[in-house]
């Protein structure tokens, strides 16, 4: 048994000793790769990959590798998006790290070239409203069956290449610098690509992309269309050897804000122009007489938008398959292009932007007005001209979408006769002569709840202009004002928001022809546009001095005057005159009694067959002086002569006296401490004289009212002359209740009175004035007593808000006259002026008192009468105004 075991062991040793030693010959090469992306007629494609391996490779052959492209792509019928595509390898060679072929030796870098084509083969872009780099995108590299590489004495039979590429080189597009500009004018950030060659006095080509290339990655612009064609030697040589290229990118699309049926302006117009002018100003080597602009589709629209909005800035333009519908361009705008160098390109089979709607009719219109430098390239279709790409028959050139006529432009194949587009473009030079337009202005002032505001200015120029719009102008208001946050006065500047600008006549009425008059409308508000200054020392309002409106063109905006370019406005900042609109319906006069004089403003309704009531308005403390426009505009007294109140009153006289100082002046220049006023007698003499001088005034319907100081004076006058007035409407009245005796109240308890005040009035305390006086009258069973007592004073127009943008603007709680002058004091459905119109003193006939219509009637009963009165009064007023 032992003998058999030993025999087996010996045999095993013999077998083992006959086998030669084996060394490891097969191995794996690991590494990563980067892709090379080139721009083609149809867009970008990954044409090459450069493998970076951990082992040097001795040699490679074209049929060694199988390459698979995996990417997010347009869904299959089953919805699959992540798809694999076999890439045809057209070349493999040892290279340096940049993919350049090495002629000898081994290398750790292997370049793999692949077939590309217009059918999407190799495309790293995907379109979903906008083009973008598709994600994921990766290439897989593996040996074909039986293929290996040698590395020294080792055989590489497996490749372990990381899935995601480590870098991408975008070929000729790498010559562009991709940066971002933040525009102040619209707050948008604009990505842009720029090519900046060496040299001086070089032209600039501005390229505006199509609808699919918006966003915030400028490489989408340079590769989405083959913008790299602008850097090629043929184009650069046509431009004189070298040319700058600027390719801005819209955040969305250039036509955002424009409608092909309704027109309009791109929301990016001003931002783009700011970017262009900043870029030009930042590059002094650009020849400003050779700035050219062009673009395709959306960019074709934007090209025409820019050259018509900023005439005189560009030397020439080349819109391609433009998206500017001819019907939306006015004759006025089109006229700007009559002598402007233009080259249109479009394919006749364009089904995206039908040439019969867009390019062709615009070209015909330009010919119709005698365009002097107009060129057109309009091929029948768009097809491959390289000889590389064919239809399935292998003979007919590949047909691109008929919209893609930009292919011919970038290939320098857009010609008219023997002239190529870029040869023509390089010969164009901007020689436009510019002029400045000088002029003066007249401001328009209107009355508002808070006081006066400059709503518009009418500019008179020394030369007519063809057109104007709000976006072209900048207005800065400079005036003497109080900074209420620091309580310091001085001359301050404020940006005024231009809401409208149009050609007009001398009176500001719009016209449809060229005009030397421009009307500029501006936004106003409780804190914007006031021409008044309130002097804390005197307590008086006045027209602020200085008051200037500095009107300029926005940067790089130019206007046309006939065929001349206006690049500057020289408008005298200080207005030559002012139009006070409704306040001009008042007439200013002076009344003297004894040694006292009062200025007063008055309004007379149109003559009719009957007598009219008189409304007397007594201003607040800030409106004293010798200029009654301060009185009529400081509070919105113009409302008393407006359609609503005049209609209710069926035409009423208005008298607005003005105290030299303030109504509560006791004669010493100080505020009264007992209810006396130095103006009581002279004011009554003025009123009586005014009534006597106007027989048309009904002496039984004389109404008196006023605010604050004027509310005090209203109380003063009715207490002093209790039988003269038919009714009174004191507002936030400052007549201290402690000054009023019961005997004084007995004299007015049957006088119709309507008090108004706000509970949060911090200037005149209602607890010491209106409220106790009202309560005392009510306790005396006053027969026609009313009160509007508001919580606060806020905007009711729906136009002005607090900073939250929701809450109505809060006025000073003292300003309750706003509610009165807006006829918003209402009791039982009857407004304060409807009530006032119904008041009349008793008329004496044959020794019998005939009662007035309102003394003892309640307001509910007056409601129906008021409705009829308003309707009849309004119609009568309109008739009077027309007659006048």
Number of strands: 46
Helix proportion range:
10-25%
Strand arrangement, major sheet: 13-14-16-15-17-18-19-20
Largest sheet: 8 strands, mixed
Unreliably modeled segments: 1-24, 844-858, 860-884
Roughly how many Å is the radius of gyration? 43 Å
Helix-strand makeup class: alpha/beta
Assembly state (oligomeric): single chain
What best-fitting shape do the alpha-carbon axes yield? elongated
Strand content: 25-35%
Give the termini distance in whole angstroms. Answer: 148 Å
Number of distinct helices = 18
Notes on the protein architecture:
The chain has 18 helices and 46 strands. It is an alpha/beta fold. The protein has an eight-stranded mixed beta sheet with strand order 13-14-16-15-17-18-19-20, sandwiched between helices. An eight-stranded mixed beta sheet has the order 35-36-38-37-39-40-41-42, with helices on both faces. Strands 1, 2, 5, 6, 10, 11 and 12 form a seven-stranded mixed beta sheet that branches. α11 (643-649) crosses α18 (859-883). The model is unreliable at 1-24, 844-858 and 860-884 (pLDDT under 50).
Task: Give a quick precis of the structure.
By secondary structure, this protein is α/β, with parallel strands linked by helices. It is 20% helix and 34% strand.
List keywords for this structure.
disordered N terminus; single chain; disordered C terminus; alpha/beta; 18 helices; elongated; eight-stranded mixed sheet; 884 residues; 20% helix
Itemize the secondary structure elements and their pairings:
Blueprint: H1 2-17, E1 26-40, E2 43-57, E3 65-72, E4 82-87, E5 89-95, E6 107-114, E7 125-127, E8 131-133, E9 137-143, E10 149-151, E11 154-161, E12 167-169, E13 177-182, E14 189-195, E15 202-208, H2 218-224, H3 233-238, E16 244-248, H4 269-282, E17 286-296, H5 298-309, E18 316-320, H6 331-335, E19 342-345, H7 359-368, E20 374-377, H8 406-410, E21 415-416, E22 419-420, H9 421-426, E23 434-448, E24 451-465, E25 473-483, E26 488-496, E27 498-504, E28 515-522, E29 532-535, E30 540-543, E31 547-553, E32 559-561, E33 564-571, E34 577-579, E35 587-593, E36 596-603, E37 612-618, H10 628-634, H11 643-649, E38 653-658, H12 680-693, E39 697-707, H13 709-720, E40 727-731, H14 742-748, E41 753-758, H15 770-779, E42 785-790, H16 817-821, E43 826-827, E44 830-831, H17 832-837, E45 843-845, E46 848-850, H18 859-883
Parallel strand pairs: 1-11, 1-12, 15-16, 15-17, 17-18, 18-19, 19-20, 23-33, 23-34, 37-38, 37-39, 39-40, 40-41, 41-42
Antiparallel strand pairs: 1-2, 2-6, 3-4, 3-9, 5-6, 7-8, 10-11, 13-14, 14-16, 21-22, 23-24, 24-28, 25-26, 25-31, 27-28, 29-30, 32-33, 35-36, 36-38, 43-44, 45-46
């Amino acid at each position: 048994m032992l003998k058999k075991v030993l025999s087996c062991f010996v045999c095993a040793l013999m077998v083992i000793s006959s086998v030669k030693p084996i060394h490891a010959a097969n191995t794996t090469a690991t590494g990563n790769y980067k892709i090379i992306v080139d721009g083609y007629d149809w867009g970008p494609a990954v044409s090459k990959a450069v493998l970076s391996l951990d082992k040097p490779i001795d040699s490679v052959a074209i049929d060694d590798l199988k390459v698979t492209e995996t990417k997010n792509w347009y869904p299959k019928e089953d919805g699959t998006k992540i798809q694999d595509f076999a890439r045809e390898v057209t070349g493999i060679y040892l290279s340096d790290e940049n993919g350049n072929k090495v002629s000898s030796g081994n290398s750790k870098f292997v370049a793999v070239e692949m077939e590309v084509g217009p059918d999407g083969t190799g495309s790293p872009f995907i379109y979903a409203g906008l083009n973008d780099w598709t994600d994921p995108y990766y290439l897989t590299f593996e040996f074909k069956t039986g293929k290996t590489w040698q590395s020294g004495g080792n055989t590489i039979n497996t490749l372990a290449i990381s899935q995601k590429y480590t870098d991408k080189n975008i070929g000729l597009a790498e010559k562009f610098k991709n940066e971002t500009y933040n525009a102040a004018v619209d707050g948008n950030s604009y990505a842009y690509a720029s090519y900046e060659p060496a040299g001086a006095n070089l032209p600039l080509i501005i390229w505006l992309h199509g609808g699919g290339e918006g966003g915030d990655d400028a490489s989408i612009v340079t590769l989405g269309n083959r913008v790299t064609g602008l850097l090629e030697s043929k184009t650069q040589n046509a431009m004189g050897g070298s040319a700058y290229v600027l390719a801005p990118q819209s955040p969305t699309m250039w036509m955002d804000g424009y409608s092909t049926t309704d027109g309009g302006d791109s929301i990016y117009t001003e931002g783009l122009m700011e970017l262009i002018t900043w870029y030009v100003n930042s590059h002094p080597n650009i020849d400003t007489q050779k700035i050219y602009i062009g673009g395709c589709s959306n960019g074709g629209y934007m090209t025409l938008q820019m050259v018509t909005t900023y005439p005189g800035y560009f030397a020439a333009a080349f819109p391609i398959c433009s998206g500017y519908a001819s019907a939306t361009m006015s004759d006025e705008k089109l006229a700007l292009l009559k002598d402007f160098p233009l080259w249109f390109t479009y394919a006749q089979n364009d089904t995206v932007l039908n040439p019969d709607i867009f390019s062709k009719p615009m070209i015909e219109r330009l010919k119709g007005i005698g365009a002097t430098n107009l060129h057109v390239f309009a091929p029948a279709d768009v097809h491959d001209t390289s000889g590389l790409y064919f239809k399935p028959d292998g003979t007919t050139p590949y047909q691109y979408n008929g919209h893609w006529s930009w292919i011919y432009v970038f290939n320098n194949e857009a010609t008219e006769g023997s002239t190529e587009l870029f040869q023509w473009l390089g010969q164009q030079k901007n020689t436009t002569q510019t002029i400045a337009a000088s002029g003066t202005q007249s401001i328009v002032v209107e009355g508002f709840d808070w006081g006066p505001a400059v709503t518009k200015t009418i500019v008179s120029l020394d030369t007519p202009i063809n057109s104007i719009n709000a976006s072209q102008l900048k207005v800065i208001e400079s005036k003497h004002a109080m900074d209420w946050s620091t309580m310091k006065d001085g001359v301050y500047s404020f940006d005024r928001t231009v809401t409208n600008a149009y050609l007009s006549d001398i009176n500001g009425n719009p016209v449809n022809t060229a005009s030397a008059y421009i009307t500029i409308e501006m936004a106003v508000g409780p804190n914007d546009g006031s021409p008044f200054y309130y002097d804390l020392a005197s307590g008086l309002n006045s027209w602020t001095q200085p008051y200037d409106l500095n009107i300029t063109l926005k940067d790089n905006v130019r206007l046309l005057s006939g065929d001349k370019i206006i690049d500057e406005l020289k408008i005298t900042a200080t207005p030559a005159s002012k139009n006070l609109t409704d306040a001009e319906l008042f007439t200013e006069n002076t009344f003297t009694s004894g040694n006292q004089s009062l200025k007063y403003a008055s309004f007379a309704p149109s003559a009719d067959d009957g007598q009219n009531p008189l409304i007397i308005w007594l201003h607040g403390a800030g409106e004293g002086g010798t200029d009654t426009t301060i009185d009529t505009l400081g509070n919105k007294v113009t409302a008393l002569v407006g359609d609503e109140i005049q209609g209710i009153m069926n035409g009423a006289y208005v008298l607005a006296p003005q105290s030299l100082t303030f109504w509560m002046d006791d004669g010493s220049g100080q505020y009264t401490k007992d209810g006396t006023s130095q103006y009581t007698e002279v004011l009554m003499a003025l009123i009586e004289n005014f009534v006597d001088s106007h027989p048309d005034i009904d002496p039984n319907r004389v109404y008196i009212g006023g605010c604050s100081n004027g509310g005090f004076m209203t109380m003063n006058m009715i207490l002093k002359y209790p039988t003269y007035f038919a009714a009174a409407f004191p507002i936030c009245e400052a007549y201290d209740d402690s000054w009023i005796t019961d005997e004084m109240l007995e004299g007015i308890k049957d006088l119709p009175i309507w008090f108004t005040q706000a509970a949060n009035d911090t200037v005149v305390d209602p607890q010491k004035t209106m409220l106790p006086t009202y309560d005392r009258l009510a306790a005396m069973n006053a027969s026609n007593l009313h009160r509007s007592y508001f919580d606060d004073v806020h905007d009711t127009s729906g136009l002005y808000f607090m900073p939250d943008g929701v809450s109505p603007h809060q006025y000073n709680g003292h300003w309750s006259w706003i509610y009165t002058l807006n006829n918003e004091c209402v009791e039982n459905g009857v407004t304060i002026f409807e009530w006032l119109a119904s008041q009349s003193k008793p008329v004496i006939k044959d020794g019998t008192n005939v009662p007035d219509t309102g003394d003892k009637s309640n307001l509910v009963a007056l409601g129906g009468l008021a409705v009829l009165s308003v309707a009849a009064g309004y119609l009568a007023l309109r008739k009077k105004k027309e007659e006048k």
